[in-house]
Amino acid sequence: MYIGRFAPSPTGPMHFGSLITAVASYLDAKHQHGIWKVRIEDLDQPRTVKGSDKTILDTLHQHGFHWDDEVVYQSHRLDIYQSFLSKLNEKKITYYCECSRKEIADSAITGIDGMIYPGTCRNKILDSNHHALRVKVEDLFIEFEDKIQGGIKQNILKEFGDFILKRSDGIYAYQLAVVIDDALQNINTIIRGSDLIDSSSRQIYLQKILSLPKVTYGHVPVATLNQKKLSKENQSMPINISNVKDNLIACLKFLGQDYEVVRKENTLTNFWATAIQLWDISLVPKIKTIEI
Ligand code: GLU
């Protein structure tokens, strides 16, 4: 059984970019008679905007999405993340890191997704909770077939380096939490924006060292405006709730789908039924960004 999900961060109201991800993950799951769950990724409290979880869920509801199971909040699951982290600590494949951002910027080279940590603190014995905790990665290639973007092969050590599992401010890192939650929620297919494609190999690596099941990934293009990703923070294109159908049609168009037939449906229920039936993931553009 296909089990998919949509995992927004509540950092502001929903915008066109996140609606695209919601539509793609929903249609891909429902086209295969699957389950679709919603998880609120609210670990990064400093970035969380109070009440925006509710706004996002209302926006989904108003657009006719139906999620299965109760919505999961990451902020309620800190003990779970700690218990998985403890397993890695016991294996002695984590270490504390006292490097400041500046020190890293001065000594590291830039990789495909930020700085490649040069391992400065790998052999130091630090044990303060005020330091970031990193995983000691192996010199290993991770290879996977993305449902949309095709084959990806990356070397974890050379292209990312030892990455953070818990930040120095005590916040569990996205990479760690997402892998644990997807596994515990039995998610087996993840459709999300291509801005996260380079996180996938680190997530597969964590699945491997935590003995968690593998998942299938598909990364849809990200909408950009003036070459910048639409984001809740910059308030780009918040969703206008009075045009629900137009919003959804714009998403289908963006995702390369045949939206003309769907457009003729005059109720939201029929709209979704037709869109689910006609969904064809092979039509989604195999590119990382689309300027709108
Ligand atoms: N919470 C992330 C975001 O809103 C998505 C995480 C994921 O889909 O893995 O960008």
From TrEMBL:
Keywords noted in UniProt: Aminoacyl-tRNA synthetase, ATP-binding, Ligase, Metal-binding, Nucleotide-binding, Protein biosynthesis, Zinc
Per UniProt, Zn(2+) binds at C97, C99, Y117, C121
Instruction: Write out the transmembrane intervals.
Output: none
Xref: InterPro entries: Glu-Q_tRNA(Asp)_Synthase (IPR022380), Glu/Gln-tRNA-synth (IPR000924), Glu/Gln-tRNA-synth_Ib_cat-dom (IPR020058), GluQ/Sye (IPR049940), Rossmann-like_a/b/a_fold (IPR014729)
GO MF terms held by the record: ligase activity
- Residue span of motif 'HIGH' region: 8-18
UniProt binding sites for L-glutamate? R5, F6, A7, P8, S9, E41, Y174, R192
Binding-site list for ATP: K232
Where does the Glutamyl/glutaminyl-tRNA synthetase class Ib catalytic domain lie?
5-246
* SUPFAM superfamilies registered for this protein in UniProt: Nucleotidylyl transferase (SSF52374)
Q: What is this protein called?
A: Glutamyl-Q tRNA(Asp) synthetase
Name the cofactor(s) required for activity, per the record.
Answer: Zn(2+)
Q: Which HAMAP family match?
A: Glu_Q_tRNA_synth
Please share the entry's free-text remark on the cofactor: Binds 1 zinc ion per subunit.
Please report which protein family the annotation says this sequence is part of: Belongs to the class-I aminoacyl-tRNA synthetase family. GluQ subfamily.
- Motif 'KMSKS' region residues? 229-233
The protein's job, in short, is:
Catalyzes the tRNA-independent activation of glutamate in presence of ATP and the subsequent transfer of glutamate onto a tRNA(Asp). Glutamate is transferred on the 2-amino-5-(4,5-dihydroxy-2-cyclopenten-1-yl) moiety of the queuosine in the wobble position of the QUC anticodon.
Q: What is its EC number?
A: 6.1.1.-
